[in-house]
Design goal:
With about 525 residues, the chain is an alpha+beta fold. It has helices at about 20-45, 80-85, 130-140, 180-185, 195-200, 200-205, 250-260, 275-280, 310-320, 320-330, 360-370, 390-400, 415-425, 445-450, 465-470, 480-495, and strands at about 5, 55-60, 90, 100, 105-110, 115-120, 120-125, 130, 160-165, 170-175, 215-220, 225-230, 240-250, 265-270, 285-300, 375-380, 405-410, 430-435, 500-510, 520, 525.
Amino acid sequence: MLAYSTMETGEHNIRAAKTQNCRTEHLWQQALGTLRFLVFAALSFALPLNANAETLRAAGGGNIVALLHPFSSLPQGVINPHAMIHDMLFYVSTDGTLEPGLALSAEPTSDTTWRINLRPNVLYSNGRAFTADAVVKTIEYLKSDAATRYVISAETRSIKSVRAIDDVTVEVETYVPDVLLPRRFGTILMPEPWLYEELGPDAFSHAPIGTGSYVVEDWRLDAQRPLLRGNPGSWRPPVEIDTVDIRIVKDAPNQVQALMSGLIDVGYNFGVVEIDALREQGFRIITKPGGQVISLALANRDPDSPFADQRVRQALNYAVDKQAIADIIMMGTTTPAGQPGLPGMTGYNPNIAPYPHNPERARALLADAGYGSGLSFRAEVLITGVLEAPTMYQKVAQDLAAVGVSMELKPLQGQQWIRKYFTGDWGQADAISATWNAASYWDVIRAIEIFSCKKTGAFFCAPDLMPAINASHGMFDPEERSLTLQGLSQNMHDLAPSLFLVHIVDVIAASDKFGELPFRHKQLAVDKLRLAH
């Protein structure tokens, strides 16, 4: 049986199975854990965390009020308060490796049963011990009706039951084989569940308790400027950064100004046009793969739509010069896309090249499909997130017009786009912006399912692919699974359920006061950050 281990199981101190009498021992351990935490915290507040304690001033994105709840969204962004306050069982690195978090290993004991081995001697910031009971309580909550409104609850959909074997061992049973279960746990934060239950979601969100490197001193909601302090009792206490001062900065020009004036040390989501100016001022520029492909989704569910014809969808891909978008609009920071994933992901197919710019081929396919005199369609696009998106879509419209295809562009606000995307009701739109998003698992199946019959509110459906898509979840042989996913990537390239554009990259700028910037998945690992010496 294949074991998805990140550390040797011999490092665990596996205790005897629970009995009723162990409950008393457990309560004593909780009390002793609290006492150890209070003593350690008292010493830590009496002395600095280390001789080089420092503040990180960072720019964050989004709206803190909207993102307060730990289960409301995936932990995203280079600077994310929740990723500092809470931990997950596992982390997925951007080379696809499953790394230990609150769990040390995950091993399938049958096709539908997993044993999760937890990190021992971990405390929440209120002194309560993190144990298998905490994992069980969190997962059972996310599977309850009360949690269905939260995005993260969907990550538990394959779980049938979860139980504690002992304080550091959890057994998870799934309804069907699910090889991705450990990676799903890499999307679920583990806040203190008993306090969460006692306070309720809203009150807990304003005073969260986790096992992470930092605690919230003040969300400062009016100013949108969270302030975090080092958590001395964490299993991963900060090395040098004991305070994190986050400013929510809404746009790239203001981030640039904040960097130039010294108000912040680190920022991200800059436009590519700012890169040269920041580099000239001595800021370090880092570009990292975002794990997503930006595209225009083309629905095939309406048999009367031109996009029900594969030839039309392929024609649009041939019509657009994606290399020019990558080289000119994105200034060489990214590359054209032609499949669901990118290099390093499970299922990425190195033999697939993006559709080349070939207007003649585009015209021939359109004529063959009965649209030799051209066609018109309406595309509704979300223009926030990728700063160059408006220019990118204008280039798409220009290239399509050159082969007789007229694309009417309409910008969407965030909530409008969310409704269309999740319901599948696009209204008057024939196409909407969408990403092939495999970032959280670093596995192409997540992106492929978005463009399949499996998606809730599916806009594209190829029933012939569903057996392979479903079977991939039960393939515990990595080579077999990789080949299956590479085949599905080829299918998606050929079917062209979207107009593939380019890979998304994260652009990060940092002052020279720090050494190498460490990352944990896509987040800056602030706990490991050191000053430049």
